Amino acid sequence: MADRIERVEVLVASPTRNYVTLRVTTADGIVGLGDATVNGRELAVASYLRDHVGPLLIGMDPSRIEDTWQYLYRGVYWRRGPVTMAAIGAIDMALWDILGKRAQMPVYQLLGGRVRDAIPYYSHAFGWDIPALLDSVREHQERGETYIRVQSGVPGLDKVYGVSKDPNYEPAGRGARPSEEHFDPGAYMRHLPKVLTAVRELVGPDVKLLHDAHHRLTPIQAARLAKSVEEFDLFWLEDVTPAEDQEAFRLVRNASTTPLAVGEVFNTIWDCQRLIEERLIDYIRTAIVHVGGISHARKVFALAEVHGVKAGPHGPSDVSPIALAASIHMAAATHNWGVQEYMGYPAQVHEAFPHAWSAADGMLQPGDAPGLGVDLDESILAASPYVPAYLPTARTLDGAVLDW
Ligand code: CS2
Ligand code: MG
Predict the structure, then answer these.
(1) Domain spans of the chain?
(2) CA distances to 107, 144, 316, 345, 364 from 332, in Å
(3) Residue 170 CB–ligand 1 contact under 6 Å
(4) Which residues form the Mandelate racemase/muconate lactonizing enzyme C-terminal domain (predicted)?
(5) Which ligand is nearest to the CA of 122?
(6) Ligand 2 centre distance from Cα of residue 4 (Å)
(7) What is the pLDDT of residues 318-359, one digit of tens each?
(8) Backbone dihedral region of 362: left (phi > 0), alpha (psi from -120 to 50 degrees) or beta?
(9) Mean per-residue pLDDT of the chain
């Protein structure tokens, strides 16, 4: 007889930062885990799962993964959006985890098996000024990393997102309200070529350099930036203008040959359909959790494959080690994978979510544990209750709100 879902639990905890974790237990005693974290909107996803979707799962056959996805997406009037899709994503991940544990196989085997021996990741180097950034780049190189994202401070600004003095920085600040910072696109655009000149001089031609503009520029500014950094041969320029204006990317595309990456804020294939089909980008960054789980991410990456676009999923500290595991398993089994972001986690996060995946010498491995290979240390989670925390809000120098 088919197994059935018996218990659905949502755990919200803050081991250094907030994570929403879904735990699905079957009548046969198999436990599947999913990540449902949406940075700064954690409790909304927790309620969506606890109050609306979790109860529907009770009694369902956990092996009907695709049908469950369709039921929760197509069968519901209100669809899409980060809260809905992260909730569906967590359920989907948990069901793949259960299937793997039942089959005694790691998820990457269920997805068709390995297409590569190891998964390259990129890490974050940052420094307030150029010498500090170069020190940070050297440290990453000493760890054997060859794909490095570089971010620096901007003269005249007192804070810049993605740049911190703490080596294990956390994008969201604890507190009841987001902090605010000012951004000057002109100063940033003038400074970036200087930063990249120094970094390229240090690392030589072989290191893959990446840079994230965090959606701060208008389309024409984005086009100009992409053109002005062409000579530094970036591996990619990320989020160069707000992601929902898909047509804006044509302007950037036509202006330069700098490879473009976007999509960590996308939640469905329809958010990036034009970008992919019209080849306006080179890398699609949808995180497995925020795009409705493995089942839907596979479709995004399959559409991308047909159009010469590669996967380069989001992997900051706010994607938990469970969703990162899902990404690593997919990377092992997906041919058109460019690179996986791996920002790393503070020690407490590794302890709260013991995992079979590993990162060393610039490469990730999924490990051979059945399912996704991630566990929970409930005592750590119980000792770390939810704390409100938000990403900062940015304003231009005249005080108007700037895009995220
Ligand atoms: C960044 C993140 O990792 C990235 O590329 O853009 O810091 C991102 O802003 C946060 O994860 C948002 O939650
Ligand atoms: Mg980013």
Answers:
(1) 5-106, 110-368
(2) 10, 20, 19, 21, 9
(3) no
(4) 130-259
(5) 1
(6) 38
(7) 999 999 999 999 999 999 999 999 999 999 999 999 999 999
(8) left
(9) 97
Main-chain phi, psi angles of 374, to 5 degrees: -125, 140
Nearest-ligand number for the alpha carbon of 324: 1
CATH architecture of 5-106: 2-Layer Sandwich (3.30)
317 with 344: CB under 8 angstroms?
A: yes
Q: Ligand 2 mean position to 375 CA, how many Å?
A: 27
* Ligand 1 mean position, distance from CA 366 (Å): 22
At 358, give phi and psi (nearest 5°): -145, 160
Q: What pLDDT, on the 0 to 100 scale, is given for residue 167?
A: 72
What is the C-alpha to C-alpha distance for residues 364 and 370, in angstroms, rounded to an integer? 17
Question: How confident is the model over 193-210, as pLDDT tens digits?
Answer: 999 999 999 999 999 999
pLDDT tens-digit profile of 19-56?
999 999 999 999 999 999 999 999 999 999 999 999 99
State pTM to two decimals: 0.98
Helix (H) or strand (E) holding 24, with range, is strand 19-26
Would the CB of 18 count as within 6 Å of ligand 1? no
With vertex at residue 65, the alpha carbon angle to CA 63 and CA 67, rounded to the nearest 5 degrees, is 115
Longest dimension (CA), the chain: 67
CATH topology of domain 110-368: TIM Barrel (3.20.20)
